[in-house]
Design a protein that fits this description.
The chain is mainly beta. It has three domains: about 210 residues, Lipoprotein localisation LolA/LolB/LppX (outer membrane lipoprotein receptor (LolB), chain A, Clam); about 140 residues, Acid Proteases (Cathepsin D, subunit A, domain 1), CATH 2.40.70; about 130 residues, Beta Barrel (Cathepsin D, subunit A, domain 1), CATH 2.40.70. It contains eight helices and 38 strands. It has a 13-stranded antiparallel β-sheet. Strands 17-18-23-19-22-21 form a six-stranded mixed β-barrel. A six-stranded antiparallel β-sheet has the order 15-25-24-37-38-26, with no helix packed on it. Strand 12 and strand 13 form a beta hairpin. The radius of gyration is 25 Å and the shape is globular. The N terminus is likely disordered.
Length: about 525
């Protein structure tokens, strides 16, 4: 249900009616139920699908709406949380585990459009999403023969589909989202108005524990669907409160081992220390710190770190309080963060990580020099002047900006949890041969890492690194070995951490999708 290389061929041209090794048009018609099904599809302008879903250990229900030519809305209701992805024909957006809405961009947006392309059978119609296809070859799996066909949604993605040679039915799709391979299998086909629909769909993300299985209960075609359901909501319910007498608070931070630490309390009962991390797409508790709080477990979720993937429980809290500011009814991850605990030099209890679920709700200024964190009410916030504004988009809910290293462009995440300066992801570094471009390159003895494990690395010095109008020179650079996590990304160039950010006061404003860099007092 969920979710690039386009080769220009001299003989076999990718198009919607190619002369190729097999008659693809006939195969596609057979895969949907025959010519009667094609007639029905030509008259289909919408459908609504409802059923149940198993998402890792959680179970719930789902509803999906499609309206031609390309609008989609998918909502999963899982115990204490609703997850939504949607596309209104222009904007792709999502609602996360805590009800926060954000716009999808980059490979996440493309993954959703690829899913729409395949589900809406756009390759059969000229008025839907553009794309192409090409027959590859036959393949045998478990004594079954399949036609293997490559599809190119929007000519920006490559999806491999396996059609059963005997029945013509679509059996499996293999897709890739950045460096994660998604395998989706289809079964239990039934006819609705002469059209074949799969009533069981299973999706697995290889290399992770994430899997989803959908069981369809009903499919209704040509339903009346209000276009507003596909549109990104303009207003969100505030799940926080400031003290009645203020719209801004300033809290002290500690800057230890190039990490930012601040004090917070959980459910008004336990005061602990958190690491501030814009590279984390959620808040996470250290399992040991919350063992005595008896928090409700709502499910599990795989998480991706710099080196790979890990599994976390999801737990529900009544409140997380930072000074006189309180976050209400929050779902957070819970995992063993003992290695992060060792980063502290004090004996203060380590409570976890404050990430997107905290940072996205407020404009926040990180003042490294004065060891302060200023948090503002977003309703009436006006940013201080004299700063350098750098727009960002969200990638996996992490701020991502355009920058240039040695004049070479790339998309870099901005990561307050990164204790280094600048990390170049392996594929980007190899693609542009940075080992030769940097000076003083050496192999490091020590490993580094985070969630997902540790990695070996090389280091060097870049003559220049430019963020908008900001030019930094003689920048220390770390190049990790290839990893399964963020370090192995094919889409992201690298990661900007505290040893660069601490040269400034930095405003994170997710409401306007801007970072603003201010000069330090000195």
């Amino acid at each position: 249900m969920i979710k690039k290389i386009l080769a220009i061929l001299t003989i076999l041209i990718i198009c919607n009616s190619s002369i190729i090794a097999i008659d693809l048009d006939s195969l596609f018609i057979k895969s949907i139920g025959g010519t009667k099904a094609l007639t029905q599809l030509r008259n289909l302008n919408s459908f609504t699908i409802e059923g149940t879903v198993n998402f890792n250990e959680a179970s719930g229900t789902f509803i999906e709406h499609f309206k031609e030519p390309n609008m989609l809305y998918l909502e999963l209701k899982l115990s204490n949380m609703n997850l939504i992805q949607a596309y209104d024909g222009l904007i792709a957006w999502q609602q996360d585990h805590n009800g926060r809405v954000s716009e999808l961009s980059g490979f996440e947006r493309q993954a959703l459009l690829t899913s729409i392309y395949m589900e809406s059978l756009s390759y059969l119609f000229e008025n839907r999403l553009v794309g192409g296809y090409q027959y590859l070859h036959d393949t045998t799996i478990n004594e079954h023969i399949y036609y293997q066909v490559a599809f190119y949604p929007a000519y920006e993605d490559t999806v491999t589909v396996f059609f059963d040679k005997k029945t013509g039915m679509k059996s499996k799709i293999i897709d890739k989202m950045d460096n994660i391979i998604l395998v989706t299998e289809f079964s239990d086909y039934r006819k609705i108005n002469d059209i074949l629909f799969p009533f069981e769909i299973e999706a697995k993300y290889l290399g992770t524990t994430m899997k989803m299985k959908y069981y369809i209960n009903s499919i209704v075609t040509n339903t009346e669907i209000n276009n507003n359901i596909f549109k990104k909501p303009l207003n969100e319910i505030a799940d926080f409160r400031f003290n009645d007498t203020t719209d801004q608070i300033t809290v002290p931070i500690e800057y230890l081992n190039d990490h930012i630490w601040l004090s917070a309390s959980i459910n008004g009962k336990k005061k602990v220390w958190f690491l501030l991390d814009s590279g984390s797409s959620a808040n996470f508790f250290n399992t040991r710190a919350i063992a005595d709080l008896d928090l409700e477990v709502t499910g599990t979720m795989p998480v991706m770190g710099i080196a790979g993937f890990d599994e976390v429980q999801l737990v529900k809290t009544d409140s997380i309080s930072i000074g006189s500011l309180t976050l209400i009814d929050q779902i957070a991850g819970s995992m063993d963060l003992t290695d992060f605990d060792k980063m502290q030099t004090s004996d203060k209890e380590f409570g976890g990580i404050l990430g997107y679920d905290f940072l996205s709700r407020f404009p926040i200024i990180v003042d490294y020099q004065n060891l302060e964190l200023s948090i503002f009410n977003p309703e009436n916030f006006v940013p201080p002047k004299e700063g350098k504004v750098i727009p960002f988009k969200l990638t996996m809910l992490i701020p991502t900006i355009e920058a240039k290293i040695e004049g070479i462009e790339g998309d870099f995440i901005v990561d307050l949890g990164n204790a280094f300066g600048l990390i170049l992801h392996n594929q980007y570094a190899e693609r542009h041969n940075f080992v030769d471009l940097l000076s003083e390159v050496k192999t490091n003895r020590n490993t580094f890492g985070g969630i997902g494990g540790t990695l070996k690395s090389k280091s060097g010095i870049a003559a220049s690194f430019r963020i908008g109008e900001i030019l930094l020179t003689n920048v220390d650079v770390l190049i990790p070995s290839h990893g399964e996590g963020l370090a192995g990304s094919s889409q992201l160039a690298g990661n900007i951490g505290n040893q660069l950010l601490n040269k400034f006061k930095v405003l994170f404003d997710y409401g306007s999708n801007n970072l603003i860099f201010y000069q330090n007092d000195n």
